[in-house]
Specification:
Layout lengths: L1 H28 L4 E4 L6 E7 L3 E10 L2 E10 L3 E5 L4 H6 L4 E3 L1 E5 L2 H6 L7 E7 L2 E10 L6 E5 L4 E5 L1 H8 L1 H5 L14 E6 L2 E8 L8 E4 L8 H12 L2 E3 L11 E9 L5 E11 L6 E7 L6 E3 L1 H9 L1 H6 L2
Length: 319
Amino acid sequence: MKENHLLLTVLVVLLGTAYWSWTKEEKKVTTEKVVMVSGQPADIELIRFTTKTQTVSVSRRDLKGEAYVWFEIASKTRTRGFVGNDKVDDLLKSFAPFSALRSLGPVEAEKLEAIKLKKPEKKLTLKIKGAEKVFQIGDRTYGSRDHYVKPTAGKEVYLVESKVLGDLEYPESRFMQRNLRKADMQEVNALEVTAGGKTRRFLHQNRLAKAEAYWATDTSPEQQNETVGNWVSKLDTLSVRTYPEDADVLKDATLVLELAWIDPGDKKAETMALYRKKAEKGDAQDYFAVGTATKLPVEVTRSVAEQLERDLAVLYSEK
């Protein structure tokens, strides 16, 4: 038993010494950031991150003249996608220019194997202004979890900050556009709701003072209306569940309502339409929406959508 403890102690010391000497050599190379690919975020055409289990692609698309960023996640069993949210801007900035924390210089084969760059399991492809560059992605460092990265056409190894590539491994949690409205409520002056061929306008009063803001009908603009306020609060909890793979998902769907968020200039800042459709199994109804924020049809939270539809009659009866 004592011999086992002694061997374990020696092993820990040796590993610690090896890591110390490795990191010590790293620091000798450079301590300054290195630009591996120059460019501006607007120049990015494609970011593709490939692992053993999936490939995440980030590209630009256009819908009726409106540009948006599209994420596609492909695995062996399925391909899914979604529209990017406002955090995408920071993601693009981290890839153009694409910089490393520092260069480790050319690395010998033995160390390449130790940091999983001899036979890498991950790959990054960047396409900027038509030029494509490919990087091999190796292991991650202790503590800070930074990535070892090597251009396929070069011998130098670099350290890239953890979050730059880390966010691409699970992009749905961070980059999916889940909200059905992008505008801040302080910039929403009114809400127009159309259902059953009738349109009602509800006013967002004292919108610049959150503590004093309230909702009212256009017929009683000075009187706070709790029914309207509660309905709008429910509307704000409606969120995206998934971006359906079926492009014709709205076929045979029933239009429930149409919304328009009105800006201070009395123009439609954003719009959304809510649909109901019989579920594929059982007697349940699924709900879908399409609008300015999501660009494409999305499946939304059923329970909230049901409440919004059920409460329409009460909402329309308010004076």
